[in-house]
Design a protein that fits this description.
Number of strands: 0
Structural class: mainly alpha
Shape: elongated
Length: about 170
């Protein structure tokens, strides 16, 4: 399990680093766009494309981190009343039937897009195309971490299912 813990730390560092490298410039670019509208600086044609590219990179690269932190959207109407073993089975099935196939398909098409970009497009969209490969790979790795942790949990060798949200943590009430 140490391998998966180390992999999760790498995913976390990559995602948090990407967030800092994109969120701050997005905020600055948004401010410049507002100034440009008022002061007519003449840079508004470049700013929206650049900030959209940064947003795309942010979203794609942080998918896996969000999944590991149980930050994705789900319907919790039934989930909160189910026992942890059932939740682990559902998460295991979701990873095998949704997360891993989705990550595989997105990686395949992201790689194809990257290869076409390097041959025919300008370098200004390479960062988006690279993120379209890295993001699904990170999501797939996160899915593998969740699968491994839930298998260990179902075997009785781990205390908590994965991904673990704040609501799932035991309370000291």
């Amino acid at each position: 399990m140490r391998i998966f813990d180390g992999l999760e730390k790498i995913i976390g560092a990559l995602s948090v680093g990407t967030a800092w490298l994109t969120v701050v410039p997005i905020a600055i670019l948004t401010g410049l766009q507002m100034l440009d509208r008022k002061l007519h600086l003449g840079v508004s044609s470049y700013l929206p494309d650049f900030s959209t590219s940064l947003l795309f990179i942010l979203i794609y690269v942080t998918f896996g981190f969000t999944y590991l932190r149980d930050g994705h959207v789900r319907v919790d109407l039934f989930r909160r009343n189910w026992p942890p073993r059932r939740l682990a089975w559902i998460e295991l099935g979701g990873c095998l039937l949704v997360v891993l196939p989705l990550a595989t398909i997105l990686t395949y098409y992201g790689w194809d897009g990257l290869m076409r970009t390097t041959q025919f497009a300008d370098t200004d969209i390479w960062a988006r195309r690279i993120a379209a490969v890295i993001g699904p790979v990170v999501l797939g790795l996160a899915g593998l971490i969740v699968i491994a942790r839930n298998v260990v949990f179902l075997r009785g060798n781990r205390n908590n299912l994965s991904p673990l949200s704040e609501e799932d943590l035991p309370r000291g009430d």
